[in-house]
Amino acid sequence: MNSLRILADAAAEAEEAARWYEDQQAGLGIEFILELDSAIERAAARPEAYAVQYRRARRVLLSRFPYSVYFLFEGETVEIFAVLHQHRDPKTWQARLQ
Questions:
Q1: Residue 73 CB partners (closer than 8 Å, separation 6+)
Q2: CB 33: neighbour CB atoms within 10 A?
Q3: Scanning 10, 16, 30, 57, which has its CA 20 to 30 A from the CA of 92?
Q4: What sections of the chain are H helices per DSSP?
Q5: Based on the number of CB atoms within 10 Å of its own CB, is 77 exposed (0-12), middle (13-18) or buried (19 or more)?
């Protein structure tokens, strides 16, 4: 498997989303994290299976929650740089590639 790096912004976004879901219903935040972990594992195992969305950035969608994980794949490293709700303005994550 490829090496995995999760940037601080992406980790903070994931934590914020998990807290929000947990506030909505007990246990839902944990379910979000489990689904997020699954999406990240899929990206790390087969990064080239995901199409380039913008410049070199790729995206994997969570199955149950309306979130996307944006990542770069270079060499043998998958770098997660954003975890965002799918209705967020794409410029939010695109600006991180500048």
A1: 2, 47, 48, 56, 58, 79
A2: 16
A3: 30
A4: 8-24, 28-45, 91-94
A5: middle
Digit-coded pLDDT (tens) for 42-88: 999 999 999 999 999 999 999 999 999 999 999 999 999 999 999 99
Which positions ≥6 away from 74 have C-beta within 8 Å?
A: 56
Distance of alpha carbon 68 from alpha carbon 64, whole angstroms: 11
Amino acid residing at 18: A
For the chain, the domain total comes to: 1
Domain limits at 67?
Answer: 3-97
Q: What is the pLDDT of residues 22-45, one digit of tens each?
A: 999 999 999 999 999 999 999 999
Residue with the two structure tokens 């995206």: 59
Nearest-angstrom CA–CA distance, 22 and 79: 26
